[in-house]
């Protein structure tokens, strides 16, 4: 059976599934139950400085984008960091780590951008016996207005400076958690590396307003008639997060830097995809908040079964496997030609593909009087829109054309040899093809 154990920065865990810093990891009761359910590690809900804890709103803190079946697709929250006393958290972390030595215990921290604040808290966290720290430079609301969270994560110089303090005053691994609310995520990752970070984790939540109540004219969630932007997470953010992870994995300045992947991970497949993009493990929040801690059991069994099927004996066997196949647009093979094909036995004649292609694409689907839908190869540019809008899975497939055959749309022979934009005759800056 596949070995799911991971060694991330020397921190061992029985599987790559960690709970991200959030309500599921806010207290001893939760974390013990999470470990009992099988989670490989946790990042404790972000701790702040000693003193009066932060204050959360006493009204709704969540908003959701639902799918047609009321499945949670995107979750928005206006919660802050832990609102429990620092010492209570530290005591609980110490106890849980002692009782669960085989699980990863990371402590998330967010204190003011002053050296003394970090110097004060780091020895206390070190004394808990936790395996490492994660610097929360990502929280997009509330704390950022106080000069913390995303306010630090958006300034690479601050990231570098704070990371350096942490490496100076703390002896174990330092993970820098990045905000997606930035133009180029590679810049903060580079800054983290310069500051000596052992790893980056991403993403934290994305600035969001999920809806406006058209009666009260207040954004949702509304607190006594007023709303504010929150942080967006859940399945909807996975594509954004995966792309950001791939950018860090591919960039020469950050290539090879350990990454903990976060954002919309709901199934074992999501996790496997993050690992193929170079992640050494993954963190999960919304899926646990939606389905409960036991969701990890399906993640473990699914990943294990898939690894067995593929002959992968360890996570490292396929870690980073998709990076060489992730490239810039200019390197895509422009000699690759495909055509859409409709499986008439599977088709339910709904007409969605026709409407999409006829109105917004290339007028490449014909509809007969008896509602038979067929692709017109002379017009089809293989854009894939019909495949994506068809309600029947695998009813429409994209079939590559063989080299030597003639594309009826262009009248040109399909070439076996790949050629991309860098050598294309229409590109004024093209280099001569060999
Ligand atoms: C209610 C809530 C509270 C959160 N609090 C924190 C936090 O205190 N510290 C932190 O680093 N991230 C926090 N996050 C962000 C998550 O750790 C995670 O980065 C984000 O939810 C994306 O993962 P997901 O799509 O699996 O939910 C919070 C998320 C939610 C939903
Ligand atoms: S692949 Fe695009 S162009 Fe071809 S039939 Fe489908 S929607 Fe039309
Ligand atoms: S969208 Fe799919 S099911 Fe509907 S008509 Fe087109 S091929 Fe048939």
UniProtKB/TrEMBL annotation:
Annotated InterPro entries: 4Fe4S_Fe-S-bd, 4Fe4S_Fe_S_CS, Aldolase_TIM, Dihydroorotate_DH_cat
GO molecular function: dihydropyrimidine dehydrogenase (NAD+) activity; iron-sulfur cluster binding; metal ion binding
Protein keywords: Iron, Iron-sulfur, Metal-binding, Oxidoreductase
Cellular component terms per the entry's GO annotation: cytoplasm
Domain 4Fe-4S ferredoxin-type: 338-370, 371-401
Reactions that this protein is recorded to catalyse: 5,6-dihydrouracil + NAD(+) = uracil + NADH + H(+); 5,6-dihydrothymine + NAD(+) = thymine + NADH + H(+)
E.C. code: 1.3.1.1
Region Disordered: start-end pairs: 407-434
Ranges annotated as spanning the membrane: none
Assembly notes: Heterotetramer of 2 PreA and 2 PreT subunits.
Sequence similarity: Belongs to the dihydropyrimidine dehydrogenase family.
Function: Involved in pyrimidine base degradation. Catalyzes physiologically the reduction of uracil to 5,6-dihydrouracil (DHU) by using NADH as a specific cosubstrate. It also catalyzes the reverse reaction and the reduction of thymine to 5,6-dihydrothymine (DHT).
Protein name: dihydrouracil dehydrogenase (NAD(+))
Species this chain originates from: Jannaschia donghaensis
Source lineage: Bacteria, Pseudomonadati, Pseudomonadota, Alphaproteobacteria, Rhodobacterales
């Amino acid at each position: 059976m596949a070995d799911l154990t991971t060694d991330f920065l020397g921190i061992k865990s029985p599987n790559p599934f960690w709970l991200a810093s959030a309500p599921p990891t806010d207290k001893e009761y939760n974390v013990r139950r999470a470990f009992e359910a099988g989670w490989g590690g946790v990042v404790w809900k972000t701790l702040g400085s000693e003193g009066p804890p932060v204050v959360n709103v006493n009204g709704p803190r969540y908003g959701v984008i639902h799918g047609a079946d009321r499945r949670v697709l995107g979750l928005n929250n206006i919660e802050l960091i832990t609102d429990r006393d620092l010492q209570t958290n530290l005591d609980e972390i110490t106890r849980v780590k002692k009782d669960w030595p085989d699980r990863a215990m990371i402590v998330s921290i967010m204190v003011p951008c002053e050296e003394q604040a970090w110097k004060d808290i780091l020895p206390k966290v070190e004394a808990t016996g936790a395996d490492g720290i994660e610097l929360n430079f990502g929280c997009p609301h509330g704390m950022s207005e106080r000069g913390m969270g995303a306010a630090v994560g958006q300034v690479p110089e601050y990231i570098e400076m704070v990371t350096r303090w942490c490496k100076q005053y703390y002896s174990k691994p330092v993970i820098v958690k990045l905000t997606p609310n930035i133009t180029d995520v590679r810049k903060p990752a580079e800054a983290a590396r310069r500051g000596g970070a052992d790893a980056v984790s991403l993403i934290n939540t994305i600035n969001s307003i999920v809806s406006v109540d058209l009666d009260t004219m207040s954004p949702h969630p509304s607190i006594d008639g007023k709303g504010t932007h929150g942080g967006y997470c859940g399945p909807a953010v996975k594509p954004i997060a995966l792309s950001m992870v791939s950018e860090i994995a591919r960039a020469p300045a950050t290539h090879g830097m350990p990454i903990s992947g976060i954002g919309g991970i709901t199934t074992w497949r999501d996790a496997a995809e993050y690992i193929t993009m170079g992640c050494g493990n993954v963190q999960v929040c919304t899926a646990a908040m939606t389905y409960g801690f036991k969701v990890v059991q399906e993640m473990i069994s699914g990943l294990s079964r898939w690894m067995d099927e593929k002959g992968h004996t360890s996570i490292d066997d396929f870690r980073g496997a998709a990076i060489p196949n992730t490239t810039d647009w200019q390197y895509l093979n422009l000699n690759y030609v495909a055509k859409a094909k409709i499986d008439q036995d599977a088709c339910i004649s709904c007409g969605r593909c026709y409407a999409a292609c006829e109105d917004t694409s290339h007028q490449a689907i014909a509809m007969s009087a008896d509602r038979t839908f067929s692709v017109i190869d002379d017009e089809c540019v293989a854009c894939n829109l019909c495949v994506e809008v068809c309600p029947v899975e695998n009813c429409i497939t994209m079939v590559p054309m063989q080299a030597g055959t003639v594309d009826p749309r262009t009248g040109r022979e399909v070439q076996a040899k790949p050629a991309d934009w860098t050598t294309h005759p229409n590109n004024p800056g093209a280099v001569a093809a060999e």
